[in-house]
Design a protein that fits this description.
single chain, mainly alpha, N-utilizing Substance Protein B Homolog, Chain A, 15 helices, 66% helix, elongated
């Protein structure tokens, strides 16, 4: 569930905060790294289950309409395409997901006003109307509709972000990234067995060790790379380079020198991508140029020692 890129992003965020915090210890900051990852993990499951609780809300409205003293024809013969959506039913039927949701109390049943507002917003969109009007009920049609709910409807629904911010300071800024993870999981769903909707926090124990080591080694060697960056930043005053740019480069250098099993090219590509979203405009181009020079210097000085999979691209 927690990918190496997400680990890098979380460490980048926490070190950035750590460097500007007075009195925060390395141990406290390290605990925050893992706590932040855990909150992301929780939010993934909470957001995934949102579509299930929205379906429950729709079911309840149908039952209330049917129970009227004088129900209309539409009340007695509602369009049930949404509540019988095959992908929603897959999510709802996932036992591991349900256990996790129940254990951590991550459903939306106590946010009834929010569910009502989201439901009313959804049913007034062309996306919903077109889906409900369609005669087909194929799995792919159902999946496409749910993906579009996450991809286009939720990111523009401001009350969602207000709701998340009220529940955790870690959640408001994470929603869009979580949504991208959910969309990826939905695209990979198997119509037959439901796919992997519930994930452990770390896929492998080595990912936990990677997070711990990258965090500590970046801070440990933080000041050691000033000269290396300055030497390869011709015509740039190190103090005038954006702090986030400097931090991204120092994390990359740490990974290149301290993690022999990770190919240099993988590290470079990862931090260039991260720079696109977490630094200033065009920072990725600047960082790419500097790191290319730094890597060339480190190779000339025979300071890059890779092994195993890390040798890919070195020979």
């Amino acid at each position: 569930m927690i990918t190496r890129r997400l680990i890098r992003i979380k460490i980048l965020q926490i070190i950035f905060s750590y460097m500007f915090s007075e009195g925060k210890t390395m141990n406290a900051a390290e605990k925050e790294v893992f706590f932040s990852m855990n909150k992301f993990h929780e939010l993934y499951h909470k957001m995934l289950y949102l579509i299930v609780d929205l379906k429950h809300f729709a079911e309840n409205k149908i039952e209330i309409a049917r129970s009227k003293k004088a129900p209309t024809y539409e009340d007695l013969h509602p369009n049930t395409k949404f509540i019988y959506n095959q992908v929603i039913r897959q999510i709802e039927g996932n036992e591991d997901l349900n256990r996790y949701i129940s254990k951590n109390k991550l459903n939306w049943v106590h946010q009834k006003e929010f569910l009502r507002d989201l439901y009313n917003h959804m049913i007034n969109t062309d996306l919903y109307r077109d889906y409900m009007a369609g005669e087909g009920r194929t799995y792919e049609e159902d999946r496409s509709f749910i993906i579009r709910i996450y991809d286009t409807l939720l990111p523009d629904f401001e009350p969602l972000f207000q709701q998340l911010e009220e529940q955790s300071i870690y959640w408001n800024d994470e929603a869009e990234l979580v949504i991208s993870f959910i969309i990826k999981a939905l695209k990979e769903l198997d119509p037959q067995d439901g796919g992997n909707l519930h994930f452990s926090l770390f896929k492998k124990e080595e990912d936990r060790e990677f997070a711990k080591d990258l965090f500590r080694k970046t801070i440990e060697h933080y000041e050691n790379y000033d000269q290396l960056i300055e030497e390869n930043s011709r015509n740039w005053d190190l103090e005038r380079i954006a702090f986030m740019d400097t931090l991204i480069m120092k994390m990359a250098i740490t990974e290149i020198l301290e993690f022999p099993s990770i190919p240099t090219k993988v590290t470079l590509d990862e931090y260039i991508e991260i720079a696109k979203y977490y630094s200033t405009e065009k920072s990725n181009i600047f960082i790419n140029g500097i790191l290319d020079k730094v890597i060339a210097q480190l190779r000339r000085e025979d300071r890059i020692h890779k092994q195993g999979r890390g040798l890919i691209g070195e020979i």
